Amino acid sequence: MNHKRAFHEVLGRKLTDVSGGMSNFSSARAVELMVVLDVLYQSQMPANAAHKIAEANAGLPEMFESFGHQPGANLAKQVLADLASRVDTD
Questions:
Q1: 90 belongs to a structural domain
Q2: Which domain, by its residues, includes 36?
Q3: Are the CB atoms for 50 and 83 separated by under 8 Å?
Q4: Domain count of the chain?
Q5: 85: which of 41, 54, 56, 65 is 20 to 30 A away, CA to CA?
Q6: Considering the domain boundaries, does residue 37 fall inside one?
Q7: What is the rounded distance in angstroms from the CA atom of residue 75 to the CA atom of residue 81?
């Protein structure tokens, strides 16, 4: 059996898992989130998958801001806007 999932599904889930329920914010956690955001930003995926990731993580910029991490908030805004605006070109 092949239990492998599409790359964007794995990263989208990782983004949601890492950011969900964060009660303490560390520099390592911020870096992990920013790496996942950067990979998603640079990756191709079906538009509907990109839209789902953007929707599931819509609160991420505000979470970064609430912890005083403006670079993370700015990156999250940029990436989520990009994901939400993607269209399939095939």
A1: no
A2: 7-15+26-85
A3: yes
A4: 1
A5: 65
A6: yes
A7: 10
Q: Is position 11 within any domain? A: yes
Q: What is the secondary structure of 40-89 as a DSSP string?
A: HHH----HHHHHHHHHHTTTHHHHHHHTT-HHHHHHHHHHHHHHHH----
pLDDT tens by residue, 36-77: 999 999 999 999 999 999 999 999 999 899 988 899 999 999
pTM: 0.83
Contacting residues for 69 by C-beta, under 8 A, at least 6 apart: 25, 30
Task: Grade residue 5 by pLDDT with cuts at 50, 70 and 90.
Answer: confident
- Indicate whether 20 belongs to any domain: no
